[in-house]
Amino acid sequence: MDKELINSAAQALNIQAVFLRETAVSLKKDFVPQFVEAELSLMPQYKAGPTGEFNVITAAHEEKIISLKAVVFHFSAGVRLVDERLLKALEENPDTADEAAYVEITADFSAHYQMKDGADETSLHDAFGEFGRVNVGYHVWPYWREYVQSTCARIGIPPIPVPMYRIPCATEEP
């Protein structure tokens, strides 16, 4: 983590909004949450992280009196409930993941930041990349947590706890 790059980006950006861009919710065929067998033990598995993708967008008024620049970062997250008894089989054969998953919730978000006047996008490119890898998750996470909670209510299962956000290591995949 390069704190100098992150600070450079943080000085140039103001958070504006977080938007849900894409989502998927699936339940295992014939799984009816209200009639779960007592012996079924479902355990959450999580994945989350920045995609590494960001775009600098410029919007100018026709008379060019006002020119706004924004940086849009992308972040993906997912959680699934898997049968704890099948976890060993999952480790041995990852292709059986669909059989073990009873519920899966995934979402892609975009976090929009306004670029402050005078900020130079070319010189800040690396800073934006590091900022996106480390900081964007903190802004997206409350939206992800709320989405998981409300989706669980809609599909009739108890809320899946979403752990605190953890900064991905440089070598981790999102």
Give a quick summary of the entry:
The chain has a single domain (3-155), classed as Bacterial Protein-export protein SecB (Roll), CATH 3.10.420. 29% of the residues lie in helices and 38% in strands.
Question: How would you characterize the overall build of this protein?
Answer:
With about 170 residues, the protein is an alpha+beta fold. The chain has a single domain, classed as Bacterial Protein-export protein SecB. Helices cover about 30% and strands about 40% of the residues. The chain has five helices and four strands, in the order αβββααβαα. The protein has helices at about 5-10, 85-90, 95-100, 125-135, 135-155; strands at about 15-25, 40-60, 65-85, 100-115. It has a four-stranded antiparallel β-sheet. Strand 2 and strand 3 form a beta hairpin. The two termini are about 15 Å apart. About 20% of the residues are buried.
Q: Total helix count?
A: 5
| Percent of residues in beta strands | 35-45%
Radius of gyration: 20 Å
The backbone outline, from C-alpha atoms, is elongated
Low-confidence stretches: none
Helix content: 25-40%
Fold-level CATH name: Bacterial Protein-export protein SecB
> Quick one: biggest sheet?
4 strands, antiparallel
CATH class: Alpha Beta
Topology record:
Elements: H1 3-12, E1 13-27, E2 42-60, E3 67-83, H2 87-92, H3 97-100, E4 101-115, H4 125-134, H5 136-155
Antiparallel strand pairs: 1-4, 2-3, 3-4
